[in-house]
Amino acid sequence: MNLGGAIKINKCAVIVLVAILLFIFYVFTATSIDRTYPKKHDKVNLRKLVIGLILAAKSGGNQVIKISNEPDFGGIKTKGKTLEGVNDYVTKADVNSHCSIAYSLWRIFPKLNLISEEDVQKKNCPDDIENFDLDPSVLGNVELPDINVKTEDLTLFIDPLDATKEFTEKLFQYVSVMICVADKKGEPIIGVIYFPFSKRLYWAWKGHGVSENLINVKADLEDGVQNPIAIVSMSHAGAVKDLVRSMLGEKVSIIQAAGSGYKIIQVLEGNATIYLHNTRIKKWDLCAGNAIVDSVKGRMATLKREKISYTANSNYVVEDGLLVEINKNVMN
């Protein structure tokens, strides 16, 4: 036995050993990153989130406009019918807007809990999703405070394309993109409504600031409106007109329109004094508007005068109709 002989090194064994060590290092490093990742993102700066929501809404709106120029809007499908017998459409614009909003927000705020009218896996999303950096200039001259909250305390409700039926009919004035943030109590605190075809943007962070076009909106729920104007849904105007007259009298004026976002803004801008809806409605149709209405101290409630809760585990359908007003309407 030659104990003093040279030791031959097997090159293949060395390569395998190095590969194993590199793999162990990679696994350990990745595990370490995963452990620290939630800590890095367990809080959200709400000022930055407002900026992100505005940019995301515009990004979704860009997708809506893009698809509006495609033949047959890139394909129209139906999810069934509403209780009123109206087709519940979904288009490529709904899907692409959702993708643009959800995945651009998750890139910046990866732990946010999002609830959307559409549910699309990233592999089914287009390749041209807009990524953006947070640009505070979208706030205009409005100053907002830096407030951090736990990410787990927030729930986002998204309607990537409100008034899809009207979108397919090229009634683009009713189309909006809506994003809302609710706190852990289920109260809506941030709302963004964006009308992509007119570029009109409305937003509010309850108690902290509103978009410049809402600064002069002041609710007055004390003095009554003597000549109320009710805005109702075109899709079932007949039934709700009877409700309106029973509540406000025969002299009430009635406007028909589409899109929850559009009708809420009409009340905020004074073109209607009350928005009434007498059938079930989804919370992603309401949450953004609810946050804005609350921010100007108006009222949004069910027809039973009950507040709407937007907790993540709540029913996503409001069964008892809707009432929106920023001025007290004289009712019978």
List the defining traits of the structure above.
332 residues, globular, 6-stranded mixed β-sheet, inositol-phosphate phosphatase, 5-stranded mixed β-sheet, Fructose-1,6-Bisphosphatase, Chain A, domain 1, D-Maltodextrin-Binding Protein, domain 2, Inositol_monophosphatase-like, single chain
Explain this structure.
- By secondary structure, this protein is of the alpha+beta class.
- The protein contains 7 helices and 19 strands.
- The protein has 2 domains: 43-214, Fructose-1,6-Bisphosphatase, Chain A, domain 1; 220-329, D-Maltodextrin-Binding Protein, domain 2 (3-Layer(aba) Sandwich).
- 32% of the residues lie in helices and 26% in strands.
- The longest helix has 30 residues, at 11-40.
- It is globular, with a radius of gyration of 25 Å.
Strand content: 25-35%
CATH fold label of the largest domain: Fructose-1,6-Bisphosphatase, Chain A, domain 1
Return residue spans where pLDDT drops below 50 for at least 5 consecutive residues: 27-39
Tell me the Rg in angstroms.
25 Å
Largest sheet: 6 strands, mixed
Judging from the principal axes of the Cα atoms, what is the shape? globular
Strand order of the largest sheet: 4-6-7-8-9-10
Instruction: Tell me the domain tally.
Output: 2
EC number: 3.1.3.25
GO molecular function: 3'-nucleotidase activity; inositol monophosphate phosphatase activity; metal ion binding
Pathway: Polyol metabolism; myo-inositol biosynthesis; myo-inositol from D-glucose 6-phosphate: step 2/2
Binding site for Mg(2+): 117, 159, 161-162, 285
